[in-house]
Amino acid sequence: MGYAKQWLFVTYMGDPKAAFLIYFPIIYYLSKRTGIAVVWVAAISEWLNLVLKWILFGERPYWWVGESHLFVKNPPRVQQFPSTCETGPGSPSGHAMVTSAVWWVMLSAAASFLHSRTRSRLLTAVLYQLYVLILVAVGLSRVFILAHFPHQVIAGSLTGFMLGVALNRTVPEQRHLRFFVYSCLGLLLGALLLHFGLEQLGVDLSWSISLAKRWCSQSDWIRMDSTPFSSLTRDCGAMLGLGLAQFWKPGGWPLPWAPRALCLALSSMALYHINRVPLPVSPPFLFYSLYFIRFTLMPQVVMVFVPGFVHLLTTKKKD
Q1: Is 60 annotated in some ligand binding site?
Q2: Catalytic site residues?
Q3: Could you list the residue ranges that cross the membrane (predicted)?
Q4: Is 153 exposed, middle or buried (0-12, 13-18, 19+ CB in 10 A)?
């Protein structure tokens, strides 16, 4: 418990939202292709994680302790945290799955770059060891806060690794807007059809939400942005935003390194404040619609709006 703050920080950095809010702007201004790959891989892997959770179910430790009725005589003292009370099913771990996929994209690109410049196998080996350490740290943090069982973390890490390897070969750079519109609709309709089909078969897909509300120690730790449909709208919005960004400015803005650093600072601040804007949680449809718009804006802020503004400032200074 003395390291609780450190584990909470690790689980925050492993949150799927971190791929869009933190890693994407940093990587994009270092390598456009890898930055686009981060959004692409994060959206697809989180969507597939949602589908797998609906199919595989999976308990979460913080509610399983009470629901299992194995500890009636000597109930353990369960310590929960604000990040504990997620409302979706537990298998596989979304944090582990998205982290595994996204960090593979980032570190494999870094390893390839270093190897092409230095021809050092030691440096590339260190990066791949760092990849394993990151997965272990995120997995332990999820177990520590009672959000997942160990096997769920392992399943998420392995699935994310395979997705990262596969999707990194098909990055939609310079693709037409239609591709992203169809991808967005495919993700949305695919998930909704699966949801409808499972409900028609008598599967109650809201079972995990009711358990989370029952066993979470503080009701305000139940957040709308942790629900399954929030991740769906986030992924669809990011996918559409990625297409719109490449449609408005194909190839992006050509900027030297100094203006890129300014773009990174401004983009990070912009994404931070956009993410902080409170959204109405009722009715749910309004929340999901605004959440969709929020993540549609984010790729455009990083790839079009901020670089365009900085480009305008730097060209004026040169004149």
Answers
A1: yes
A2: 95, 148
A3: 6-30, 37-57, 96-114, 126-145, 151-167, 179-198, 286-310
A4: buried
Q: Please provide the distance, in angstroms rounded to a whole number, between the alpha carbons at the two ends of the chain.
A: 58
User: What are the residue boundaries of the structural domains of the chain, listed by start?
Assistant: 4-71+78-318
Enter the DSSP assignment of 19: I
Per residue in 52-64, pLDDT (tens digit) is 999 998 999 999 9
To the nearest 10 degrees (0 to 180), the angle between helices 121-144 and 4-13 is 110
- How many CB atoms are closer than 10 A to CB 266? 18
Tens of pLDDT along 53-105? Answer: 999 989 999 999 988 888 877 878 889 999 999 999 999 999 999 999 999 99
Distance CA 55, CA 77 (A): 31
Answer yes or no: is 121 a known binding residue.
Answer: no
DSSP 222: -
Question: Of 93, 78, 83, which Cα lies nearest the Cα of 139?
Answer: 93
pTM for this structure?
0.94
